[in-house]
């Protein structure tokens, strides 16, 4: 892969006020380290706002405006293969908006097709991701991530999804990531860092200290690190972890068996 690409980690949201909850971290590789150049809320993107549709439209435009970049997005890109009638992930994504009219119908149809069970993809099991794509806690994230971001980009071949498609130097590349899975791989999972207490703030600072050694991770300015630590929801930190997952992915190709590649072509792949 092209390691010269600018790296972005996106902590996504499908909430009504998504602009307040989305965080975007920008970084570059420098002397083997991931150097964080900025971390901002979704409603601070050009043309963005707090409401869902304007913030997601702005996010999509932001991705398109950075062709030589790699974006890690923390929502499921697909469903378990036996719930998909299409021959490929790309076909599934292109057809998604017409197949599922709203998030509740999306969840209901998935549950009906799965006999009431919350199935997970093979890649989610391998990455130790916590939820099924249509779990009650994240189904809106899945729905709006696919319908408002992935589907328009893939339908018109404006971006490439790894490792399903070959990268292009003239188009942004998109990777599915899961901050919880990355923290597990780095043996940092279990810290309770989402909250308003001094203990939560301390946990966020401690995680960043560990990441500075393990990745290694650097901040271009001290104020960026401070903003990440001070974000009470932990979403800013999740976007940093998302960027780390992209940084790790660009340094090595996933080792996939022929069977894994066949499944991946429909179910996608979670980078950790």
Q: Which features would summarize this protein structure in a list?
A:
Nucleotidyltransferase, domain 5; alpha/beta; 11 helices; 45% helix; 8-stranded mixed beta sheet; 272 residues
* Overall form: globular
What class would the helix/strand composition place it in? alpha/beta
Q: How widely separated are the two ends?
A: 16 Å
Q: Please tell me the CATH architecture by its name.
A: 2-Layer Sandwich
| Model regions low in confidence, pLDDT < 50 over at least 5 residues | none
Provide the CATH top-level class: Alpha Beta
Helix proportion range:
40-55%
Strand content: 5-15%
Total tally of structural domains = 1
- CATH topology label: Nucleotidyltransferase, domain 5
- The helix count comes to 11
pLDDT averaged residue by residue? 96
- Using DSSP, what is the number of strands? 8
The largest β sheet comes out as: 8 strands, mixed
| SSE series | EHEEHEHHHHEEHHEHHHE
CA-based gyration radius: 17 Å
Structure description:
This protein is an alpha/beta fold. The protein has one domain (6-271): 2-Layer Sandwich (Nucleotidyltransferase, domain 5). Helices cover 45% and strands 15% of the residues. It contains 11 helices and 8 strands. It has helices spanning 18-21, 52-64, 89-99, 103-113, 122-127, 139-155, 179-185, 198-214, 222-230, 235-251, 258-267, and strands spanning 6-11, 23-30, 33-41, 69-73, 160-161, 173-177, 217-219, 270-271. Strands 1, 2, 3, 4, 5, 6, 7 and 8 form an 8-stranded mixed beta sheet that branches. Strand 2 (23-30) and strand 3 (33-41) form a beta hairpin. The two termini are 16 Å apart. The mean pLDDT is 96.
């Amino acid at each position: 892969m092209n390691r010269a690409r600018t790296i972005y980690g996106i902590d996504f949201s499908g909430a009504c006020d998504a602009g307040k909850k989305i965080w975007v971290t920008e970084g570059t590789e420098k002397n083997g380290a991931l150097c964080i150049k900025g971390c901002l809320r979704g409603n601070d993107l050009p043309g963005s706002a707090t409401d869902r549709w304007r913030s997601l439209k702005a996010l999509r435009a932001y991705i398109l405006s950075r062709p030589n970049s790699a974006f890690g997005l923390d929502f499921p890109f697909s469903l378990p293969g036996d719930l998909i009638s299409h021959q490929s992930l790309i076909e599934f994504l292109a057809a998604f908006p017409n197949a599922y009219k709203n998030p509740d119908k999306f969840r209901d149809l998935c549950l009906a097709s799965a006999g009431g069970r919350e199935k997970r993809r093979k890649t989610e099991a391998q990455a130790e991701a916590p939820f099924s794509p249509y779990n009650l806690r994240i189904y809106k994230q899945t729905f709006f991530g696919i319908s408002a971001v992935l589907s328009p980009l893939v339908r018109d071949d404006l971006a490439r999804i790894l490792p399903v498609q070959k990268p292009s130097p003239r188009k942004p590349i998109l990777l599915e990531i899961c901050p919880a899975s990355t923290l597990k791989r780095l043996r940092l999972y279990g810290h309770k860092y989402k909250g308003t207490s001094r203990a939560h703030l301390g946990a966020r600072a401690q995680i960043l200290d560990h990441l500075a050694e393990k990745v290694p991770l650097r901040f271009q300015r001290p104020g960026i690190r401070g903003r990440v630590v001070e974000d009470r929801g932990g979403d800013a930190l999740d976007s940093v972890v998302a960027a780390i997952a992209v940084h790790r992915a660009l340094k090595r190709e996933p080792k996939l068996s022929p069977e894994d590649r066949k499944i991946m072509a429909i179910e996608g792949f979670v980078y950790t």
